[in-house]
Design a protein that fits this description.
The protein is of the alpha/beta class. It contains twelve helices and 14 strands. The protein is globular, with a radius of gyration of 21 Å. Bound molecules: nicotinamide-adenine-dinucleotide.
């Protein structure tokens, strides 16, 4: 029987993107060998690199390669060189947002994981994060106040008035709620839904639909928090959360708060998921939560863990390769527990040693053998 084969559009982008992507490729090649699957990589330009070569941040060839692929593995885009370009052709706005829109990537999953051996990197009081934590933020990505219309600044009675409109349809809440409940069912079995039902009509509908969807997941324990309270509770007791489900605006803010309390951007993966096929697998785009880190780009010292963990999410959500994904997660944890630290997570704790990007890749590969 021929090996299962997957096509990956590889968009490394700018800054540290190509450096950390190279390590993710090494890890993917290693798991392909170990688990008897094949990955075909289609490398394409995106962001500033694409602007320099073609004049635009998302060339037609890149979009075509993504359409032909089973998933997109994305690095990061942007940097000072392109910051003064008109907004619509800037790397982030001109590449990331169109990709999300084109592929209908409505679900953003951001794990906020603080390994027990990395709690010193968290800015939260040690007794609150002792033993580490693992929270998954599921953010609705294509609806809500970022997309509703009217969206404008107009003149009224001699002064400017800014208007943004928050709109959620039942179907939009329902589909993101299913993603969150399924994720919770496969992990700790707890889901906290975030809204502002005490003030917003959107919150009332959000809560009503989430409760309806919950009936299909009797093994998941659901609770609700108002977003202002959630912002406090996540800092006060991060270990007690499992999956957090939030509308676009609240998820944008809370997921950054959660990234911060976990300690380092260099450790945090993300997935943006679109439609599901009949096997329950999603088309998705997988990328580190951080950006192109121009301050350390080109030095070979960036932390590749976020990129490697994003590749593991790709195996889990788009390819259904759960064992291979688990193996990568375990190998990253093993490398950290073994003391390997890139500069961003190096605190000088006893038993740790500083490594560069390739060194962290090697420590992770060693764990896969
Ligand atoms: P950033 O995430 O690039 O960097 C913030 C800080 O975190 C920097 O000190 C950086 O060195 C550090 N950092 C981030 N990832 C790291 C890693 N893997 N290893 C070690 N350290 C890491 O955010 P920024 O400085 O605000 O933005 C820089 C550029 O990236 C901008 O052009 C911005 O538009 C772009 N950006 C892109 C994305 C994306 O591609 N999805 C996301 C955020 C920012």
């Amino acid at each position: 029987m021929s090996a299962q084969s997957f096509q990956i559009a590889v968009l490394a982008g700018d800054g540290i993107g190509p450096e950390v992507m190279a390590q993710a490729r090494r890890v993917l090649d290693a798991v392909a060998g170990k688990f008897g699957v094949a990955f075909a990589y289609d490398e394409q330009l995106v962001g500033g690199a694409a602007i320099d070569a073609t004049g635009g941040p998302l060339p037609e060839a890149t979009l075509k390669a993504c359409e032909a692929a089973d998933a997109i593995l994305f690095g990061s885009v942007g940097g000072p060189k392109w910051e003064s370009l008109p907004p619509d052709i800037q790397p982030e706005r001109g590449a990331l947002l169109p990709l999300r829109k084109h592929f209908g990537l409505f679900a953003n999953l951001r794990p906020s994981v603080c390994f027990p051996s990395l709690t010193a990197a968290s800015p939260v009081r040690p007794d609150l994060v002792e033993g580490g934590f693992d929270v998954l933020c599921v953010r609705e990505l294509t609806g809500g106040i970022y997309f509703g219309s009217p969206k404008e600044i107009r003149e009224e009675n001699g002064e400017k008035v800014a208007i943004d409109t928050m709109v959620y349809r039942e179907s939009e809440v329902e589909r993101i709620a299913h993603v969150a409940f399924k994720a919770a069912a496969g992990r700790g079995g707890r889901l906290t839904s975030i809204d502002k039902a005490n003030v917003l009509r959107n919150g009332l509908l959000w809560r009503e639909v989430v409760e309806r969807v919950a009936e299909g997941y009797p093994d998941v324990k659901l609770d609700h928090l108002y977003v202002d309270n959630a912002a406090m509770q996540l800092i006060r007791r991060p270990r007690e959360f499992d999956v957090v489900l939030a509308p676009n605006l609240f998820g944008d803010i809370l997921s950054d708060e959660m990234a911060m309390i976990a300690g380092s951007l260099g450790m945090l993966a993300s997935a943006s998921l679109g439609g599901q096929n009949e096997a329950g697998l999603y088309f998705g785009m997988y990328e580190p939560s951080g950006g192109s880190a121009p301050d350390i780009a080109g030095q070979g010292i960036a932390n590749p863990c976020a990129q490697i963990l994003s590749a593991a999410m790709m195996l889990r959500y788009s390819f259904g390769l759960t064992e291979a994904a688990d193996a990568i997660d375990a190998a990253v944890r093993g490398a950290i527990d073994g003391g390997a630290r890139t500069g961003d997570i190096f605190t000088g704790t006893e038993g740790t040693h500083r490594v560069d990007t390739a060194g962290m890749g090697e420590a992770i590969l060693a764990g896969l053998e």
